[in-house]
From TrEMBL:
This is Unannotated protein. One of its GO terms (biological process) is carbohydrate metabolic process. One of its GO terms (molecular function) is hydrolase activity, hydrolyzing O-glycosyl compounds. Residues 1-267 form the GH18 domain. SMART domains: Glyco_18 (SM00636).
Amino acid sequence: MANEGKRATLVKTIKDLVTKYNYDGIDLDFEKFYAKGETRANWVAMKPNWVSFIKELSATLHADSKLLSVTTPPDFDPATKRAGNWVYAWSEIGPHIDRLRIMAYDYSTITPGPIGPLDWTEDAVKFAITQMPASKVFVGIPGYGRDWITKVEGACPTAFASTIIVGGRASLAMRDAVNLASTYGGEAKYNTTFAENSYVYKKPYSDPTNSAITCTATRTVWYPDERSYAARAALVGKYRLGGVAVWTFGKETAAAATAIKNVAKAIAPDVIVSAIATDLEQINYGATFNLTGTFKLPDKTPVAGLNVRFEVKNSTDSTWRSIAVGVTDAAGTITAPAIVAEKSQIRLVSEGSWERLEAKSLEKAINVAPNIMMQLPSSVKATSAYQVKGQIFPKSAGVSVNVKRNGVVIGSYLTDATGGFNFTLIEKEANLVNYQASVAANAKMGAGNSEIYPLLIR
């Protein structure tokens, strides 16, 4: 890790592997951060090298739209006074990874005890979501238990003498732990604090050639079951996590697998927080404006690949109309140009699914001003009459057009069926004046003004 060249080689090797087999990404499971003879004191020097490695690998994988997942042992808020694995630098790698899988197991290894106590697991989760968005965090749950030898009576046969000793231990699949209790009469008790089972049983070991050579081992087993899975899966809904990661699939009982499914079905879909913005809130008829929407989870994680509808509603619509569709990018953003012909309300609506609720942005009002033009000469003779024609767009009959001379209204004229209007202009003496036409706002259009037309009277 400390050697930049070797680090670069490792990054390239991982990238080449992902590319060769077209994987979605890679999961790193680096569980030991000290060599033989080293201690946690070495983590001070290791931590920045690890962070650099993650940043470099992340940049390489994300450039090809590949995922980076990291699996680590638990870490904890120092206030809990639990021994955490702070070398993995959750807060520093958080912006660069797509998933964090917490190995919330192996709490008890040397001596009998729970595999991953529920309160210990929850403390790790609570700390993780302060270090990165909750949607990136996956809680790891064990599909296995452990079986410890706590006492040995008698003289064990040679075949077992080196393994059947006090302190000996073995891992076993969840389903096997259940069967073992039935076989040897172990009475399993569920501990609600740890959310795990335990039982004690005795197993004899005999020499098949000499029944006088025998020993009996007292063994203690701890293992999870369907209640354990349900309790840990419930943390996903409680803290809005990304999900669970099971080590390993196939070791659990059918009931445990069903328990996870049931919790998943009961968890309400994620709420999507949406926002809408435009570069213009008032446009002239026929002009284009740009519409931008953002879609994020409550923890501000962008939601990419979300199907989004652009919807519009004007004064004559009784329902919203979809005018375009699109998909959010990696930043959870969608942008598109839009044109509306009259005053309208615009909103964005994301598609709902079993894992995410439909999201509707706030409505954005777009005011559309009519285009007004007049055919006015640049100069006229004093006392002569001139016919001036004008036009408004969109074409509409019966619209009152005010004509102003130097900012003062001198007459109002109604448009015909084509949106045209006309008036007679007579100036009495030489001068330089300005003419302008305007219309007031109505239910469909905003107020609008033509350009100012200078007129020379000679």
